[in-house]
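Q: Predict the bound structure with nicotinamide-adenine-dinucleotide.
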Amino acid sequence: MARIGFIGLGNMGLPMALNLVKAGHEVQGYDVNAEALSKLAAAGGTTTGSVHAASSGVEVVITMLPAGQHVRDVYLEAGGVLASVDPGTLLIDSSTIDVASARTVAEAAAAKKLLMIDAPVSGGVGGAQAGTLTFMVGGPEAAFERAKPFLELMGKTIVHAGDAGNGQAAKICNNMILGVSMLVTSEAFVLAEKLGLDAQKLFDITSKSSGQCWSITNYCPVPGPVPTSPANRDYQPGFTAAMMLKDLKLAQEAARSSGATSPMGAGAAAVFGQFVEEGGGPYDFSGIIRFLRG
Ligand code: NAD
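A: Predicted complex:
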């Protein structure tokens, strides 16, 4: 059994860490939030008081942090992960961050001869709890192979997407598709309402027609057709609109820096931006339909 340092024990990190504990690994965790640490301790993990302590004397470090700046700080600062780990420690960053930050940290790790992958996830808190996440991995083959047995304890689908940063590239492309498809799905349901077409009828037809997509069949933004969708519980998340906006902004940043054209992604970023500005941030991203209704 391995000793694992786990940094960032929030909505996603804590249940991921608990799956490693359940599998018999020794998890020493760190979070700036004391409440998160007590939850880990209550479930059989060990708590530490700093990034340095969490990454000392371990075989693997896993991070699950909010954004690029947190990841750069935690890995690169004095007393950070790179300065604290033993030689040979495997590094896994599962946060969703910008591709440039992921590549900067990966280069710094490589300069210290440390194997590192970026391994963002999809599947949300439910997937983290159930151990059914999808991991999109960027980094050297050797790091991927070493990480796989650990990722398999937290996820069901593990895909090696290429070199450092490609996991993040896959994640933002996927979420740009999701943001745009949820927005246009919501527009269609609002249009149907205005035209006097019943939502269930529209669902029955589009879920079997060429407009079919995940946002309709798995996560329908109106209550009724898909009983598990957040629309049936007043748009409690799920995946918040604030998180969706973050990912759409990351996609736009990447499109700008790489010279890719992305008018639909830009439109979705603008609309989700207004929704969040008007207080929609904590709600599920499918709550965008309420914003469209005005
Ligand atoms: P969260 O805010 O619940 O958790 C982040 C944790 O990191 C918090 O507990 C915070 O206290 C801790 N933290 C921040 N700075 C720290 C530092 N310097 N040292 C130690 N701990 C620190 O966020 P989350 O929902 O768990 O998401 C984490 C990452 O996963 C994000 O990048 C997010 O985009 C991504 N993600 C989230 C979901 C989701 O549905 N929530 C789904 C897929 C991916």
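A: DSSP finds 14 helices and nine strands in the chain.
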